[in-house]
Write a sequence for this structure.
């Protein structure tokens, strides 16, 4: 990685005109080790970035290239923020020594049948999973040259629930209901995403286990539980641009008490730079995490219902996508895990 | 009810300066049979309504009286939109022939221990429960002179789930996660309810079964199930003024299939004037119900998770409070149940 | 108008899938004299209304026809909610005895050069202007069979300023800055109208006198002033679905005092069913008018700046479009002007 | 300033529990030269910051001291984010060599009569004015030990209009209409600032020249114009937490053309690190500036109306308060003006 000793680590961003791409650029522009190289896009190739991402003034004059292996060559790191199914072929042409960080879904799932069932195309493979907080993953990420960045919902749901499985506290049957801001649905204009439609409205979609993030949550929790976990996942859309609040619950096993629950979560997040288990009695709000890489978690035992209830909040574009991508890239490159990232949100 | 043949049914509203009171007035002003009589308030007594509820122009010059039995006497119907614990003593002094419709919690619960545990005061009693859609309730409401209007969360959660229990489809262990607009938290100024705090933020509160609406949901579903039902209820606050979206799930029993689920819901809501079981594939959004008395419901069977997932949306101030109150009052007074109410929302 | 004595006045709505069309249907469905006939659309022809306008439950099963003269024939009233330039050819084929109410711009302007300059197409003509509050207009509307419904910005700006011109208080050089909700921009999906883009953002557009509503405001104020009026109009977009707040100012002439200003506005709006000159010291907020046909106005004299400042608020889809259309249609049909309309807003 | 060579410049923040204080801390925490010292508050003294400003995780354990001269002593810089009238007495006890940066209004105005007329208390004095972009101010700020941070509205209105006066293009009679997010109104709970009230609503307040920022705008523009400038200023509140969009207009003098206007603005902002004169045809949106110190400006000549129209957007808490404060403090301390500040916003 010659860049480290020279002029910085050269990073390209494919898909620079979308929301994930814009957030990657916001973070990379403030990162002390990265130098922003090629910016590429699909239909927006040829346009100045300033016309598409006017919040990124220092990069306003950059012209977007077309997303091709050639445009992306010559970089130390390539961040892919592309529609599903586009990362695989591209990655193959990028060289094994280039760090490829895929913010798409292509390489997240282990099970080819799951992939095909939910995405309807051949499975591209599986890359190291960019959720360092998940047991065993941080080690896997150090020095890797391929990273599958988790989905936004799986990030927050997994952080909320894996400590309970790690400590053997709950039954392998969970319910996750998550409220998401609209940026998770992307920047393509669709009627149901118009401001007039979403302001003042909460709505459900992808109900009944059909959302593509379901198998990813299942995979994460199952790996920690050491047994299959059944996941009922319902995403909802609420009137804000950013943020996901996930409410997650599972039945506790016999004899589990509040102290054990608290202990499990304290232990799971001890020393984690980006997960904040809130003091008891305080609950996460997505606004606390705006633009930050923090995940806020709280957990409680509902004794009457015999359930553990964990709630977690993230910024879907930061910890849920671009911040998580940079966190894992830092690990892969041997940099401090939190370099260029913050736990301070923009609030109110 | 002499008013019916004369100048209209005289209705008083106690608590006219709050959000529930304002919504009652909005509906009553458009109701063909009601005549709006005394308007009372606590700290706002002596103020013109126009300074407090400027959206109610035709009533702008009305001066609020203090909430006393005297001020409320001489009416056919008294709607109470008061803080918890205030309805009981007042109602005793209103005469048995007056229809008293309590939008507060005082008379909702059957179990005195539940009341005392969740509200911390002596139980005032139990009145007929104003959710006509719930099996057996409509009959109880006809001709009654006392109505306990359901809480907003219990309204939407009960409508989402009771058909499943009525048909014996699910296990008595449910999870309800609801996203609510801020008007449900009332009009008293509190820092965490400031626009600066709530815009752009989704947050959880009352997690772990401690929200006061929990025993009410439990009571409703248990009555239909014929056995105790365990309820895990998590309310969340999202950035909109009105609306609740409830996501509700329970394990299905053996052999339950999608057709049985659909059939149960179609049967439960057949002929209901205000509940709309959406066509398959469409999902509720709260904006569809703004200002209307409609409840939108959809349900699906998640075969992988072995769960029924029902989602329902209402306007918390209309069907969830004031509209529900008028619907039940109509029944009590022998009027058409839907008189003065609409299923058309203000959208977008 | 045989319908009045029979089954109601048969009304068709062309453009029923858009926001203006939806609002027309919401109002017509609650109007005691109208019967809703044909609903037509362009690209959405063949679709059930329930899939497009799910807030209109009673009309959910109606299938949209294609917008043709044939589909619209056989009605007493035809409301047109179509893109600019489409109303003229259609209206010609609808029969002179049919009341045609055009919510588009085609017939608003008197000056063909203005039309061609701002709209870039040949001028279709001029119809009676549907702003009954404007001096002389109410009389013109009675019995007419053609109505040009004003634009939303001209409605609110004209109401805010015409009393000052009617009383000769101000110089013919005005500044209007208006904040609008996003529904005014319509339902066609565009990136800059996405919820993710508009939430949390106020932005200007059409700055420098280029917005098409500029000549309409100029025309209205000039007619009252009896001399040409110069208008600087800047529209801005703010994060809400509905509502326009217009801040309007002009230099006062010599000797004009606060009492004269107040008197002028009281006189202009005396007896008006839908304009509410607020008590002194209270200022309009768009939320007061949500779903209502009210226009709230306040005015003050800034003695230091030598300026009258008037602020007005409306719901752009109601008083600013569909409500204004029905108000004028009532006049044309000899019905009470306020029939089927309300001054009560949905709030909070 | 010994701190520069040692452990950083020690900065205290008085008023750390409010919105301005929180934003100061967000910026200071990321500033490479500042070390955060005492945090003080009024009623919130004794509370952990994490309970009040949960978005500032690294400072969550800090306990707020009471705002006294003693608590604030021993620092190189003291930022005051206090209610009006509180800064004067405090500043006197802080030592002449301490840099005192007042985010309040106390020391902004030159004219004692203006102060007394608008604030109703004795005038405390006048400090160097922290708007480096204003001609002559940057020099005045270098090395100063007292800074009066401009108000949020004056910041944006002055940036939008001073170039026109500097180039002698316009008459001294301006209209400013500004749309602000709610955070400008502070964190004290008031009914009209509740989320339920502000979401979905645009409203005017302080109309008619009575807003306290009026004389500050007048002072700034008059100083550049070299003659008295008449200002008509109307602030409005729109449904977002942060951001101000100001629409500003004045009549142009004879012979002024579009090229002269463009040239004047290009010249005024040439080399400015934080003001971005947008490319022609693009218009400011507040969301572009979220959390950034950027001010976006656009200007156009409306030839028909004979007016220059300038529109500017800032984040009221950043460039409008805390970012502007740090920018000026950088100058006072001999640091690079843009140190610790960014022109990149958090978007969408």
């Amino acid at each position: 990685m010659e860049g480290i000793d020279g002029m910085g680590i050269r990073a390209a961003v494919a898909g620079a005109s979308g929301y994930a791409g814009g957030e990657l650029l916001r973070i990379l522009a403030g990162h002390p080790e990265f130098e922003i190289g090629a910016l590429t896009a699909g239909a927006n190739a040829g346009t100045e970035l300033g016309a598409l991402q006017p919040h990124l003034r220092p990069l306003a004059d950059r012209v977007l290239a077309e997303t091709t292996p050639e445009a992306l060559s010559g970089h130390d790191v390539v961040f892919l923020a592309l529609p599903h199914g586009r990362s695989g072929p591209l990655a193959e042409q990028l060289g094994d020594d280039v760090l490829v960080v895929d913010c798409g879904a292509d390489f997240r799932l282990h099970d080819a049948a799951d992939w095909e069932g939910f995405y309807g195309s051949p499975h591209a493979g599986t890359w190291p999973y960019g959720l360092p907080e998940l047991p065993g993953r941080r080690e896997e990420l150090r020095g890797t040259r391929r990273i599958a960045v988790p989905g936004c919902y799986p990030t927050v749901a997994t952080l909320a629930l894996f400590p309970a499985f790690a400590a053997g506290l709950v039954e392998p049957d969970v319910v996750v209901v998550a409220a998401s801001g609209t940026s998770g649905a992307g920047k393509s204009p669709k009627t149901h995403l118009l401001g007039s439609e979403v302001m003042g409205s909460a709505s459900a979609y992808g109900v009944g286990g059909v959302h593509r993030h379901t198998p990813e949550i299942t995979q994460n929790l199952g790996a920690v539980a050491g047994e299959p976990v059944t996941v009922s996942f319902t995403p909802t859309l609420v009137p804000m641009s950013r943020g996901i609040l996930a409410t997650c619950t599972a039945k506790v096993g016999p004899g589990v008490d509040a102290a054990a629950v608290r202990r499990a979560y304290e232990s799971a997040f001890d020393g984690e730079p980006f997960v904040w288990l809130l003091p008891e009695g305080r609950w996460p709000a997505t606004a606390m995490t705006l633009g930050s890489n923090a995940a806020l978690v709280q957990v409680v035992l509902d004794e009457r219902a015999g359930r553990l209830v964990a709630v977690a909040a993230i910024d879907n574009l930061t910890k849920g996508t671009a911040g998580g991508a940079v966190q894992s890239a830092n690990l892969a490159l041997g940099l401090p895990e939190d370099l260029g990232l913050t736990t301070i949100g923009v609030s109110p």
In short: Chain B has two domains: 9-149+320-332, 153-316. Residues 129 and 148 of chain B are 5 Å apart (CA to CA). The first strand of chain B starts at residue 9 and ends at 14. Chain B has a mean pLDDT of 96.
